[in-house]
Amino acid sequence: MSDPIKVFKAKMIRTMARNTPEATHVAVRDGRILAVGSEADCATWGDIVVDTRFEDKVLMPGFVEAHGHAMEGTVWNDLFLGYFKRTAPDGSIEGGLKDIEAVVARLQAHEATMTDPDAPLIAWGFDPIYFDGARMSREHLDRVSTTRPILVTHASFHLINVNTLVLERADMLGQTNVEGILRDADGQITGELQEMAAMSMAARAVGATGALRGIDAANLRTFGKAAVNAGVTTSADLHQSMTDEVVAAYQTATAEADFPVRMVPALGAIQWSVKDGIERALALKKQGNDKLHLGLVKIMTDGSIQGFTGRLKWPGYHNGAPNGLWNLPPASLKEMVKAYSAAGLQMHLHVNGDQASEFIIDVLTEALTEHPFPDHRHTLQHCQMADAAQFAKMKALGISANLFANHIFYWGEQHYALTMGPDRARRMDACGTALAHGVQMSIHSDVPVTPLNPLFTAWCAANRITSAGRVLGPQECIPVEEALKAVTSGAAYQLKLDHLVGTIEVGKFADFAVLDSDPLSVDAIDLRKVKVLGTVLGGEWQPSNVPADQGYAPDVMLPDVLELA
Amino acid sequence: MTGGAIIPVTVIGGFLGSGKTTLVNRILGASRSRTAVLVNDFGEINVDAALIRSDDGLTMELSGGCICCSMAEGIGPAIFRAIESNPDEILIEASGVGEPRRVAEFALLDRRLKLDMVITLANAVELSAQLDDPLIGDTVARQFDGADLVVLNHVDAASPAQMATARAALRRIAPGRAIAETSRAELPLELLSATTLSILSAPQSAPIAHDEVFFRTRLETHHSFERTAFEAALNALPATLLRLKGWVAIDGEPTVMLLQYVAGRWELTASDDPGSGTRLVGIATAADLPLARLLGAETVAL
């Protein structure tokens, strides 16, 4: 006779499944869902013991982030300097620095806590795009320290700021004719560096390249904390080298009983020859465990839209910036995509601009015609500029879309004014058009590019409010229920894990997000205020690290939002 | 830092199929110096990469990194590794979509390196169609920015009409740059060698390559140059002069000075050469370059 069956009682269980969409009890055995419905439904399986800790809480399927990066577990080793507040994995709130003086003050305060006088001060997430043209210079950073190297990476990852000491150590002060070392109107070196040469030379002088490198088990544990805080129980890590070292780190972390999230790392195809990458991905597919799902492949095509490196169709960037960059020649990308598809490997394809998405749709048309691949679930990632014509083709080919809904809040104003212009900005990340065309869809954060928080991502897709309070393209807003599907069953489908996670149904893992209120009962505008208290993973409670009385992050300050909405 | 000699860096750019790997192999095959070579290898895609000799421990393959994380991966760390291998020269094959001048910035920035030459190849058969392709046209065009030498390659396979359009395209996207036409990236080694003064001892017949593509130019004179005027003259030399090496007599200097000029970048350093008088040899893509007049020395013959 086995132990009694554990049954969680909740105020409301939103199963996100067609069968039994609402319930009050869920029974768990061996980490899986045995029954969902009423207490009586659960009791038909035998002796039960009811756990009432969630009886005034709401359960949903654990959220699934289909486009995140475990790098979130490494970036917090450095100081965050973002414009909007962000929750760190340990639950503290960082950022919210609204002008350069606030950034300097934060750096000064952090510098004062550093004990090793020679250690470099490395910071990330600095985003002067919100500062009305004000730039940070080395004079600002020299006020923080003239004896300690300081290196601040911008949110775009395309620029860094350094203090004079770093310029001296990298031997840059006397340099001329190097485009990557920026100067002010008087020809003085400002301490802003761009392009890979200048940036990597500075990072090397500081010994700071490590922070952006590979992943280890400790980083993964930190990522696990971030996931719990956001209600995420399954997350993609959508670009990894998948070297033996990385796979070993994954195996170590996920084998730990208390590791709190299922991980789905994708092999970055660009880091392998096509032949070796395919062999590697096929071999990885056979490995893994309940918390480690291997075999996904990531293809990089263009850059980013806010970095002006996305590949755009006519008429290009609104401010006249030249068209963006390909990671590989299109002909090489085509060979690569066709080879992986022919090998039966599912691909997640990074396409930001509409030329990149159109190109990949055309390539997949050819690939799937030459080598049919039933249920391929190839997914266009970001896919921010796809229009109705592209979604129609995606539907016809069975291609999924994972749209970057958070962009509407974080960079919507920049897209409106600089990158796209008003009309194209209004149809960016067009969740409404995707659904209207029946394209299978998810939405994502691309953490650490934007914060990991699926409820906030759903808020973005449902409300499309920019950081300035503008509703950007109300026609593309989607109902809350669709947005919640996108971050649960929709994302699970794209990771080919929908038989295991994404809804609360019998046989799936007992993975839940524990919420303080019901996201399907609040107004769409209040979705982001639904609080995540933690997760249940395989039937085990994982409390959030965020203090109960902490405010919301990001700190959305929108005086006119309600009026606009 | 080992305190070793400054390492010259050659950057070879050009779109897929322009002949970059052929040129890399040609240089490696003929060079007698220890050359570290950084190549892009995507296995089956870049089949030419298999031709690159990799038995000397100095060949480094550049794996692609995503654009967003280029700080941590890709070419930077590979260049630093190459420096540590203490080579005589470094040869970098930019990726098929890379911009050679951005790669060249490493050589401008790192004091252990000096930029020797940036060479961008074009495929004479395909250039025009590539430039018209909205997917890649701008990428191809950008690769010519900052090139010291543009090599229009595969001319043997191009029809007269293709040659005409390719030449016209280069006039538009690479105006004023030195242009050489080749069939299999056949550039004279003495043009490419960054480490030796070999051109000084080479036979003096001109032209030096097959199809009257490169021309040697010489200057031997007892004229002693006034330093400021000579430096100004160097800065004004035409783009068609790719390399100029040798000894120069400068007013007030006890011995002749060593001049090493590559595509507009030059160094004038003290030398222990016992000879006297100015002896310079250059390589240009134009015939009959009036070197004496350009340097302001035509009045005094040796």
UniProtKB/TrEMBL annotation, chain A:
Amidohydrolase domain: residues covered: 55-540
InterPro entries: Amidohydro_3, Metal-dep_hydrolase_composite, Metal_Hydrolase, YtcJ-like
Keywords, sorted A to Z: Hydrolase
MF terms (GO), sorted A to Z: hydrolase activity, acting on carbon-nitrogen (but not peptide) bonds
Protein's name according to its UniProt entry: Amidohydrolase
Organism field: Pseudooceanicola sediminis
Taxonomy of the source species: Bacteria, Pseudomonadati, Pseudomonadota, Alphaproteobacteria, Rhodobacterales
From TrEMBL, chain B:
Domain CobW C-terminal: 214-298
Coiled-coil ranges (or none): none
A GO MF term: nucleotide binding
SUPFAM superfamilies to which the protein is assigned, alphabetical: Hypothetical protein YjiA, C-terminal domain (SSF90002), P-loop containing nucleoside triphosphate hydrolases (SSF52540)
Membership in a protein family: Belongs to the SIMIBI class G3E GTPase family. ZNG1 subfamily.
Annotated protein name in UniProt: GTP-binding protein
Lineage of origin: Bacteria, Pseudomonadati, Pseudomonadota, Alphaproteobacteria, Rhodobacterales
Alphabetized InterPro entries for the sequence: CobW-likC_sf, CobW-like_C, CobW/HypB/UreG_nucleotide-bd, P-loop_NTPase, Zinc-reg_GTPase_activator
